[in-house]
Specification:
globular; alpha/beta; 3-stranded parallel beta sheet; homodimer; 10 helices
């Protein structure tokens, strides 16, 4: 039987619709949520992401600033800009597009962002709030979007066994923390590159979250029949039949597993569209918390 | 076959021996590590713990301050003392004995401790450093002691499946973070009160860490033959045959599991003795980092 496709475009659209009302409420109180996006250098993919984020702000009627700095911008200059944005009352969210050029110490830059404006959820203060289950913190957008997809698809997490493959600070670890929290109550396993018997571990999952960044790495032997699969991977593989010469695939071998799982996020169109929607949600939340509205 | 008993008293003694050399080195450079222990109120158990910590300092030749404040001490007064200790150059570690009286907001107090002196590892800055795998951070003493026991017992963690039962901020969560880090490389499952089929989950563990606080909760059905068991529980149960009228048992039913596991920490004498040894280690580390020696 074909699995239920968890449609990230639809869920993201619903998240944005809910935000429209909240933004209208904040505007009536005299507050327009504002996001500053900072890009250092001219990485083409980063330019696309930054453009999409600024466009999403415009579509929702949010205030935004787009800062494109030359690739040779110094650490000092970048931190100076962060401090300026921290002090700018029109700005409630600050995001430095990753990865910056190699001469920039990204962790040190993030430490300079006011944690109340850290809508990417990368500042240590927000990392800790996630572990401590403090709801005023900011959670990284991708795992936050994964949780929203599970919720929208009506997937019960309490008492279920969730396996998160990947232990990055951006996806794997925060995802595991979200799933094990008292709000979700899943039993959570974190697997990674050093895990032995990875397929067997994955096969014990009621909910499988793949965040490894390796195309089609997880196949049919990784799926318990009826499992829910959240595929965070966005991998380019060569495909001469496509105009661009490549296509995008996930970390899960969709064709191999679709007959086994009960629900799955397609790639593209699953987790991908959620990230910017959750960034908008975090920016609105930051505004609400900063102005106390 | 009887399992190997992981002797916490012996391992703790070895940790302290190693510290003696490091303390001598620091003293030669003109620095004596100093710990301040703060107790609010007169809880008998807390008084015993505080006394033991101060005594451990004396035995190692560390400088210590013991602050016993009345139960009606205000939040403001307590925070004032914390600030004083933050500024005291003789003090490198600050510990507020938990739990404080109910009128004290413990989290708010901890936020006031200089993270460089937070030898309990409860400050959000240190919670984040553990997740981010920053070795300059402080890890809570009990999970740190559990890792030391595994190391001392020659237990390989890489590629092994570790199951941590319990998701507290003091033991379960930091223990899971330690085990999943690149330094340990275990595949880690966090189970808790909402886990279904707890025995089955535990039975998949090569390394089982019990931190639930319920006497003898985990029995033979929770043990994979050959597993290593770390029992963090310290529970009093009535026992009229003992002079005190009670005895101390762990979260694991020792008698039931000892024929199955390959190694186990006894209770008492396993994890318990490690906590103060790791507090001493954290205090020496804090001194080393603060003075840059």
């Amino acid at each position: 039987m074909a699995p239920k496709l968890i449609n990230g475009k639809e869920v993201a659209a619903r998240v944005r619709e809910d935000l429209v009302q909240e933004i209208a409420r904040l505007k009536q109180l005299g507050h327009t949520p504002g996001l500053a996006v900072v890009l250092v250098g001219d990485d083409p993919a980063s330019q696309v992401y930054v453009g999409a984020k600024v466009k999403a702000c415009a579509e929702l009627g949010l205030y935004s600033q787009e800062w494109r700095l030359p690739a040779d911008t110094t650490q000092e200059k970048l931190v100076e800009l962060i401090h300026q944005l921290n002090a700018d009352e029109r700005i409630h969210g600050i995001l430095v597009q990753s990865p910056p050029p190699p001469h920039i110490d990204e962790a040190a830059v993030i430490l300079n962002i006011d944690p109340r404006k850290d809508v990417d959820g990368f500042h240590p203060a927000n990392v800790a709030k996630l572990v401590l289950e403090d709801p005023t913190g900011f959670v990284p957008c991708t795992p936050l979007g994964c949780m929203e997809l599970l919720r929208a698809a009506g997937v019960e997490t309490a008492g279920k066994h969730a396996v998160v493959v990947g232990r990055s600070m951006i996806v794997g670890k925060p995802m595991a923390n979200l799933l094990v929290s008292k709000a979700a109550n899943a039993t959570v396993t974190i697997a990674h590159s050093r895990t032995k018997n990875l397929a067997e571990v994955c096969r014990s999952a009621d909910i499988l979250v793949a965040a490894v960044g390796r195309p089609c790495m997880l196949g049919a032997d990784c799926i318990k029949p009826g499992a829910v699969v959240i595929d965070v991977g966005i991998n380019r593989i060569p495909d001469s039949s496509r105009p661009r010469g490549y296509r995008i695939v996930g970390d899960v071998d969709f064709d191999a597993v679709q007959g086994l799982c009960s629900a799955i996020t397609p790639v593209p169109g699953g987790v991908g569209p959620m990230t910017i929607a959750m960034l908008m949600a975090n920016t609105v939340k930051a505004c609400r918390q900063i102005v106390g509205a």
